[in-house]
Queue: 3 jobs
Job 1
Amino acid sequence: MEPGELEGRKIFEETTTNNVKTGIDFANDTRRLFRELEEKVIHLENIVRQQETTINDLRMSLAVVQAKLFSGGTE
């Protein structure tokens, strides 16, 4: 081996190892964030469904009130 070749190989190996570890950490963080966002989206979808149900119930109640009001009575 030429002088410095062993040091060069060691530096290359350390750099490669660090790059692989960084890639793995990034992938794991990305997966974790994706799962968190997926849970938030599911939660928000449920809230939207609940709000739609509430709005529809209010519309039906309003329709009953309007029907009574426009039919000429409040009884």
Job 2
Amino acid sequence: MLYKFKSRSTADIIMLQAHGRQILQAIGKSPDDAHGIVTADQIPGAIQALEAAIAADETRRAEGNEGEGASGAQDQDERGDAGEAVRLRQRAAPFIDMLRRSAAEGKEVTW
């Protein structure tokens, strides 16, 4: 399943189910609903919630990397996991931009 986020202020954003659910959970919306809305009034809170989720994700990842030491870092480099992982910050950036542009024009975001 895919999530298709729409706004009259921007182009559509399409996300895989797992990533769309993560975004919706971060902003306090139910990912179980096939359709939903973030009203213009809810957008500032949604942006703050996403930024808080991004900060928590980065803190969690940093703490996980510190405990591995040099040998853990070498193993990750050999597998290619560390540098190629797509973080929440990268996945959420287009959605945050959509929210900001929609808020500037007073438009809602739907899915």
Job 3
Amino acid sequence: MYRYLKRAKGEEKGAALVEFAIILPLLIVMLFGILEASWAFAQQNDVRHGTREAARLAAVNYGDVQAVAQEACARMDIVYPATTPVVTITPISTAGGTGGLAQITISSTYQTITGMLDGIFGNLDIESTIEFRIEQPLSGETDWWVDGAGGSYTCP
């Protein structure tokens, strides 16, 4: 009987290797999926941060669309070096003074970190929009507000 148990144990030497070979691709896909999802979340947070910063700058009359957009791009440290986000400021109300409403949108494309799951994550658009109220009257920077034209700027 001892000989039978010894022989049965010896015949299963490669079973763990086969099981690992079957499971390994699934583990790799899960690992890269977690990495890509985390990177997508970080990029989304960066775009949100840039939009909040740009809305605050526009609300306190930092300048025209280009000045606000350039500063918003400079404050995004994950998305901006890798992509060229588009900053759009659109007036909602016709009043360009204190209390006027506007919205700012920053949109970017997702840049994958591993490239392994481009079919799933490769063509994502990241966008954040915030509506804000003008806190300081616009002084000499009314070009982007007149006729509800707004403006758009692509980060260099």
